[in-house]
Design brief:
The protein is an alpha/beta fold. The chain has 2 domains: 39-76 and 85-169, no CATH class; 184-426. It is 48% helix and 17% strand. It contains 16 helices and 8 strands. It has helices at residues 10-40, 51-72, 130-139, 144-155, 161-169, 172-179, 234-247, 264-271, 281-290, 297-308, 313-327, 332-345, 353-359, 363-377, 385-397, 413-424, and strands at 88-98, 101-110, 186-201, 203-216, 220-228, 252-258, 276-279, 408-409. A hairpin with a 2-residue loop joins strand 1 and strand 2. Helix 10 packs antiparallel against helix 11 (313-327). The two termini are 48 Å apart. Required for the transposition of the insertion element. Pfam families: Transposase_mut. InterPro entries: Transposase_mutator. GO terms for molecular function: DNA binding; transposase activity. This is Mutator family transposase.
């Protein structure tokens, strides 16, 4: 009997692998040969009349010719095409904008005008990659004018600001879809923080943009939502935004870490009654220093660190009593801040150190906020809320491998989830967790 369709023996696999390696070696040799030849002849790799532009022109024109041959049913120059109803009818010159500059190509035509190319469609003036290059520069903080100058200097490409704006405007639908995407049923940790941006709304003013980052039961971190604050009642805004997260699928949050934003703790427990609300310790320390003399900062931060790293809440209370006795008279506002917020501050002290690092600070969002500030600093202000959210979304989408990122997997998550199961076991769906996670 012959071999079943789709089956392969080991020799077939070995031969296929060997052929693939040989082809890769040939491709590498050909590429190196082109580069060596370009250098020997003084041809630039990028820029006008460069090697890469020439290669791209040949690849695109070759692909278009192949499409035309498939459309007509015969190859160029094949006698089989003589006398047929439709045939080739020369070419049309088209200028494309690409990541390596403007490239002129010759697009083949047919006599009855029925040819519809797919590689470079009719009326298409930019190939895939150009818009992504513009968006990447936009996410890094360059204005439309700076992107225009960059493309002119590096790629000898004359692009209008209007074209750049249209390229960035295409992201709007993607932003809307991202802001309304379904979310996980349960999040182990929800962190909320704010960044202040200058946004025009009639007049330019400082507007808070609130960021929510979640860690799901698999330890994966993701930005769940972004909202631009208004001058209205803060508690109502929080109820609206948190209800939005619930409507997108979030049924439970184990721990929420925030910086004491007005109305937020109460809103969190109103939406998810079982959630443990943890105030960000870093923000608590920073707020404490606002009420004190700089000369006392080293001593105060050292003593506060002893409190929030105490092994138990009882130990932390004893240390705070000493701290309070020492600093109450000169700085009653600082000690009063800690008394007022002790319940939400001490929430994380019930966990072992490994889990505390995950839940006691919103530094994860702050690393993202630093990238937001970099992208917004050069702009001065945003013309609208939509423009601000578009840039922040692009910052999230364009990950930088050498910088901390809120998206990705949480370090040492296996140990953390085991501790959380011990505290919240009846609320964690173990059947929904993967058998193993890569860290």
């Amino acid at each position: 009997m012959g071999k079943a369709r789709g089956s392969h023996n080991s020799s077939d696999i070995v031969r296929t692998g060997a052929e693939l390696m040989q082809q890769q070696e040939k491709d590498a040799e050909f590429a190196q040969e082109l580069v060596d030849r370009a250098r020997a002849e003084g041809v630039s790799l990028v820029g006008e009349n460069s090697l890469f532009k020439g290669l791209l022109k040949r690849v695109l024109e070759g692909a278009l010719e192949a499409e035309m041959s498939e459309h007509l049913g015969y190859e160029k120059g094949d006698p089989a095409g003589r006398g047929v109803a439709n045939s080739r009818n020369g070419t049309t010159r088209k200028r494309l904008r690409t990541e390596i500059g403007e490239v002129d190509i010759d697009v083949p035509r047919d006599r009855d005008g029925s040819f519809e190319p797919q590689i470079v469609a009719k009326h298409q003036r930019r190939i895939a990659g150009f818009d992504e290059a513009v968006l990447s520069l936009y996410a890094k903080g360059l204005t439309t004018g700076e992107i225009q100058q960059h493309l002119a200097e590096i790629y000898d490409m004359d692009v209008s600001r209007g074209l750049i704006s249209r390229a960035t405007d295409k992201i709007k639908d993607e932003v809307d879809a991202w802001r309304n995407r379904p979310l996980d049923k349960i999040y182990a940790v929800l962190m909320i923080d704010a960044i202040v941006l200058k946004i025009r709304d009639g007049a330019v003013s400082n507007r808070p943009v609130y960021i929510a980052v979640g860690i799901n039961l698999e330890g994966e971190r993701d930005v769940l939502g972004m909202w631009v604050g208004t001058g209205g009642e803060r508690a109502k805004q929080w109820m609206t935004w948190l209800t939005e997260l619930r409507n997108r699928g979030v049924q439970d949050v184990l721990i929420s870490c925030c910086d004491g934003l007005k109305g937020l703790p109460d809103s969190l427990t109103a939406i998810w009654p079982q959630t443990d609300v943890q105030l960000c310790v870093v923000h608590m320390v920073r707020n404490s220093l606002r009420y004190t003399s700089r000369a006392h900062w080293p001593a105060i931060t050292k003593e506060l660190r002893q409190i929030y790293t105490a092994p138990t809440e009882d130990a932390a209370k004893a240390l705070f009593a000493e701290f309070e006795e020492k600093w109450e008279r000169p700085y009653p506002a600082m000690t009063g801040l800690w008394r007022k917020n002790w319940v939400h501050f001490a929430e994380f002290l019930k966990f072992p150190p490994g889990v505390r690092k995950i839940v006691y600070t919103t530094n994860m969002i702050e690393s993202l906020n630093s990238r937001f500030r970099q992208a917004s600093r050069r702009r001065g202000h945003f013309p609208s809320e939509e423009a601000a959210l578009k840039v922040l979304y692009l910052v999230i989408r364009h990950r930088e491998p050498n910088r901390p990122n809120p998206t990705g997997r949480t370090h040492n998550w296996k140990a953390a989830i085991n501790v959380l199961v011990g505290f919240y076991g009846d609320r964690i769906d173990l059947d929904g967790l993967p058998l193993a996670t890569n860290e």
